Amino acid sequence: MLISELQNQNLLIWGLGKEGLALTKFVQANVKYQNLYLYNDTEIKNPVEEFQLYSGKDIDSLLDKTDVIIRSPGVSIYKDKIIQAKAKGIKVTSSSDIFLSEMRQNHPQTIVIGVTGSKGKSTTSSLLYHALQVLGKDVALGGNIGRPLVELLAEKHDYVVCELSSYQCSDLSVSPQIVLFTNLFPEHIDWHQSHENYYRDKVHLVANQKQGDVCFVNDKCEKLKKYCAAYNLPYRYYNQKQGFAEIDNVLSENGKPLLHIKETKLQGFHNLDNMAGVLSVIKYLGLDTNKALESFKTFVGLPHRLQKIGEKGGIMFINDSISTAPETAIAALKSFDVPLGIFLGGYDRAQDYHELAEFINQDDKVKVVVTLFQTGPRVAQTLREVLTRKDIVVLEETDFEQAVKKMYENLQQVGGKMALFSPAAPSYGCFKSFEERGAEFIKLFNKL
């Protein structure tokens, strides 16, 4: 939706987190509206004093006097009230859609690169942003990481790298000129209401690409390729033998080795997949891939993503709180080759832990598993159903601090060298975010 379509309308901004607040300021400065209503599902301290803040059941009366709802990412398109609003003829959009619409219509000189995937999108977006900076390009980073996208509309850049979540992709009416997909596996069932909806909503990012646009797809991910097939687009694939790919834990081009992960500051071989995608985009843009490759060596990893937080008693502690799915825990385990223990468990999104349990059973380096939080008992039960090894300790804990202590003690007893916090489940229920969960893990490590 364009800014011009918001003029002289009764607008409702739904959700007042970081993006909602940025959107409120943007609308105040750029839109001549009839009325502007601010609504949050729960009561919070009013962050915008010049407006009344509505919450809870106020939504019923607000829908009677609203023309356009601009939803924040946390507001699901499957909410009953959103569905009711559309049935009443109320238009529903988002700040991401406003940004992409405006960029297409009024800033065609700027190339927008949209990055998404179940995991790896933040690191991939940041790697691409870093490489373009090193290449001397005027580039901005926004969306789910970096700055709120609407803030960038007042600026001019060669490129804008957008990290977009499934929440942001789900109902876009415009697609970026360039899209990069990292992978696809079950996530966010509470927002999308089913895994099927999640898959469709994620790949919806390319639903409105035009002739001349391009989408890069990770060839390793069969589920991603399956759902991308819903759109008849001339996809470009990375992680194939021809082109940039991770082969035998080395980043390669046409089979020729380019870079080992040890030459970078990152942990985890899966980051080579991310780099393969980034180099594919860099080459498509006609830029220097050798210089971009060198930039990977200076890139500093993001917090809570296989982050080394310190060593005690000969045991290295790794914070991978970003891990919210079994697939990411498996990727984390593949990243290390020392005797270790892993923490598992979090908010229950009906994810299947059998593949993770089977992997742990076959991975001799895993010596201790400590389960926690809501999914802890289910993870422990799944492990016990498949474990055939006798040299692995499985502990169920309800207290986070006690879990860290037990992991430390048991690893010392079995000669372990690493404690890996890669929960394979979301943080909600006990924490506001994976960042808060990771910060608590670091705090408990420091208390040891």
Structural topology:
Layout: E1 10-14, H1 18-30, E2 35-40, E3 53-55, H2 58-63, E4 68-71, H3 80-87, E5 91-94, H4 95-106, E6 111-116, H5 121-134, E7 139-143, E8 159-163, H6 166-169, E9 178-181, H7 189-192, H8 195-203, E10 214-218, H9 222-228, E11 236-238, E12 244-247, E13 250-253, E14 256-260, H10 270-284, H11 289-295, E15 307-312, E16 315-319, H12 326-334, E17 340-344, H13 354-362, E18 366-371, H14 376-386, E19 393-396, H15 400-414, E20 418-421, H16 434-447
Parallel strand pairs: 1-2, 1-4, 2-3, 4-5, 6-8, 6-9, 7-8, 9-10, 10-11, 16-20, 17-18, 17-20, 18-19
Antiparallel strand pairs: 12-13, 13-14, 15-16
Helix pairs in contact: 5-10, 5-11, 12-13, 13-14
Characterization of the model:
- The chain is an alpha/beta fold.
- The chain folds into three domains: 3-94, Rossmann fold (3-Layer(aba) Sandwich); 107-298, UDP-N-acetylmuramoyl-L-alanine:D-glutamate ligase, CATH 3.40.1190.10; 307-447, Mur ligase, C-terminal domain (Protein-Tyrosine Phosphatase, Chain A, Alpha-Beta Complex), CATH 3.90.190.
- Helix content is 35%, strand content 21%.
- It has 16 helices and 20 strands.
- It has a six-stranded parallel β-sheet with strand order 7-8-6-9-10-11, sandwiched between helices. A six-stranded mixed β-sheet has the order 15-16-20-17-18-19, with helices on both faces.
- A hairpin with a 2-residue loop joins strand 15 (307-312) and strand 16.
Brief characterization of the structure:
The protein is built from 16 helices and 20 strands. The protein is of the alpha/beta class and 448 residues long.
